Please model this.
Amino acid sequence: MQFDHIPHPAPVPSATRQQAIADPGFGKVFSDHMVSIDWSEGEGWHSATLGPREPLTLDPACAVLHYAQEIFEGMKAYRQQDGSLALFRPEQNAQRFNRSAQRMAMPELPEDLFIEAVRQLVGADRDWFPTVEGGALYLRPFMFASEAFLGVRPAKQYKFLVIASPVGNYFKSGVPAVSIWVSRNFTRAAPGGTGFAKTGGNYAASLVPQAEATEHGCDQVVFLDAVDKKWIEELGGMNLFFAMDDGSVVTPPLTGTILPGITRDSLIQLIREEGLKLREEPYSIDQWRADAATGKLLETMACGTAAVVTPVGRVDGPDGSFEIGSGGPGQLTTKLREKLVGIQQGRVADTHGWVMSLD
Ligand SMILES: Cc1ncc(COP(=O)(O)O)c(C=O)c1O
Model:
């Protein structure tokens, strides 16, 4: 598909941009351009455009505003040692996007079109790459039902867009351990629901439990399963790994209620290559507490695109609190983090073919 290029009439002045990319924080600063592709029942995907980033005009009856037919992805372009830019496993984001689309009764986007859209945007906005150490260009592909119609059925028109946001290092200094609140009042996803899909409603539903975590002085919320209310699932935006003293590492299995993280999948491979025994197995909150108390559990790691690999230092909840290991980053967490970040930034050999150069 050919992309129409619409020149930007008034890009952000260079001095303002330089200031913005020096300390961008997360998700607050946006680049000059966006990609837009439309879908309609008769025409399929059409009107691919790379143009100025601008507000959208939506009919008040636009289906997404009423029934939340929406999906998204989160990925980053990374600066390589030679100054070029690269994506990390973008085909995985494209495939997950389509699994989300299927679940939400939306049209799938061809994988190569998804990647080309991201490529076009990074090409146009490479001057927005942050200058801060550890920064990246965060990319947000998303799709929503754009038809003006109030009946409850899959829409007949959709918009796919990609926007970009320069982001700083998730943590300003080093890698502090996060504290986790165990949600007993709320669950995130039930069997047969939308837990595995990256759809906005899952995140809307996580805001109140996240606020509960914050009220209790915790950084993040951990969700338990909706049926037995004892199996650990994931955090609001990160997957979990538990490292044991016998050289095994446990991570909750993909049963349809958690998001299949691309960082999770990458870590599974790296952990196995370390010669450790990786088990995708249910792990209960009671076992977590018991293993932390006996010292069987050495480390707990949270992982995702935003914070890469982060140690969990303390767990708090209605049933009391417990510390994990030393309360700070353990050996395996540090090793895996350095390896993964090294691969993403081109400092460690990419033996898996995970890095896609954009230059
Ligand atoms: C609910 C949830 N779990 C896990 C993840 C981690 O996924 P990934 O490693 O693909 O960023 C994310 C972030 O996208 C998420 O939103």
Residues 74, 234, 237-239, 259, 261-264, 304-305 surround pyridoxal-5'-phosphate (CB under 6 Å). The longest strand covers residues 157-167. The radius of gyration is 21 Å. The chain is about 25% helix and 30% strand.
